[in-house]
Predict the structure.
Amino acid sequence: MAREYAIRFRATAKDEKLAQLGVIRRDISDAKLWIHPRCVRLIKTLKRVRWRPTTSPTARPTWGYEKEIGHADLLDALIYLRRNVHRRPYPKAAPTMEQQAAMLMPWSAQLRTPGMRALEQVLNEEPGWYDEEFGAS
């Protein structure tokens, strides 16, 4: 099926699980990763997951089993998703306040009341107290 649709799959590296868990925690606390409130099972998993105690010091850490969340497979899926999504900066810089105001200008004249337009015209035509107070020349 993968050949039919030209989809390629790569195996996810499973090393450094503790480090990846730290990345997930940091992304959530920095608001880089949001979980939709309808993802009830994932939220419950994040709240209730616990490590399974291991007897061997060389054993890989795994999640304990709980009836409602199982073996925390949703958390593993989140870790794999975060690991495999290639992030890149948005190609455009965020517009400055002046650029945003310029984008709104065609509509802003329609949204303002006649009194606001008259006040703006007076302020633009006649230099006054605001120029002196704010250092405009």
